[in-house]
Amino acid sequence: MLQNYQDTMAVVRKFGKPDLFLTFTCNPSWSDILKSMEGVQRPEGRPDIIVRVFNMKLKELEEDICKHGIFGTVLAYIYVIEFQKRGLPHAHVLLTLDSESKIRTNDDIDKFVSAELPDPCTDLRNFQIMTKCMVHGPCVTININSPCMRDGQCCKRFPKQFKDDTEENVNGYPIYRRRATEPVQVGKYSIDNRWFVPYNPWSLKKFNAHITVVVRASVKSVQYL
């Protein structure tokens, strides 16, 4: 583990600190998984199939990022695969972009990352994926028993503030645009744009899974891996 960390820091020293931090989580409802079930089998009973399909999807995402350049030209690509308590694999990915692809302005951020629920009239597919895969919690007063709660507060600082425009905060991380809209019903909760994690619309639609995209990952992100 220490050797892996040192290797990763060597990459950071050579290519600079990461620009993007992605988390890609397996969706047990992927058709490639469900069609492989036999009889009364459920995905949770076939971890071999889950891992195989997830690795295929991860390789496809890697190709989209590194070969097709959905975020620009990538200088360095680092990832680790972990498993959640319920057995679903997920990957944490750090990307370092070349100088021409750096995400420098708020407009650049809005080009690649959104934290808002799309209009179902114009983007029904992403609306459905968002409400199923990209909601944080809810927590705080809506659900005080959420796993993210620490001493009465959300450790991820949800709900976020409404913002008409993307802004920089004092730590160098963006505060994503989250305009005030009418809440939608997700299960038994009524939620709005304050509760969605940031994502890339193109990759979300393609992979139909939980894929968070955070701009301006720091060197501390390496320790998270």
From TrEMBL:
InterPro entries: Helitron_helicase-like. Residues 1-95 form the Helitron helicase-like domain. PANTHER family: ATP-DEPENDENT DNA HELICASE, PTHR10492. It comes from Araneus ventricosus (Orbweaver spider). The lineage of its organism: Eukaryota, Metazoa, Ecdysozoa, Arthropoda, Chelicerata. Pfam families: Helitron_like_N (PF14214). This is Helitron helicase-like domain-containing protein.
